[in-house]
Amino acid sequence: MALGTRLYLIIGLVAVLAIAAVAVTASSQLTSAQNGGDDDNDVPITGAALQQASDAALAHTGGGDVSDTEVGDEDSFYEVEVTLADGSEIDIQLDESFNVVGEEADNDSGGDKDGDGDND
């Protein structure tokens, strides 16, 4: 095989590998975004479902204000973020029938007002 032919084969192989690497990287970034890697893709709850989800979450927390909602959350069918009277935030996880299936303190809320780690 001539040197020129070998060179073309090597260049072609390198090009194919580079294209494959770009495709794999793009695919993994897309998958990450679809699986909750980016909060910019959140879909809010709307219509009658918003009222039902809000009522269920506020009944569970004993009050507060609904500050955010999401359909198709990574943890449940619905997620309702509630801001409590003390300023802390809690995420309430609901199933398709608006039953509470979990809750989690929202660590992004800044509930630690004085920065000493004790949420006061």
DSSP strand tally: 4
Query: From the alpha-carbon coordinates, what is the Rg to the nearest angstrom?
Result: 24 Å
* Tally of separate helices: 2
Instruction: Write down the secondary-structure element order.
Output: HHEEEE
Strand content: 15-25%
Give the fraction of residues assigned to helices: 40-55%
**Spans with pLDDT under 50 lasting ≥5 residues?**
109-117
- The end-to-end distance, rounded to whole angstroms, is 76 Å
How would you characterize this protein structure?
The protein is an alpha+beta fold. Helices cover 42% and strands 21% of the residues. The protein is built from two helices and four strands. The longest helix is centred in the first third of the chain and has 35 residues, at 3-37.
Itemize the secondary structure elements and their pairings:
Layout: H1 3-37, H2 47-61, E1 65-71, E2 78-83, E3 89-94, E4 100-105
Antiparallel strand pairs: 1-2, 2-3, 3-4
Give the tags.
single chain; 120 residues; alpha+beta; 4 strands; 42% helix
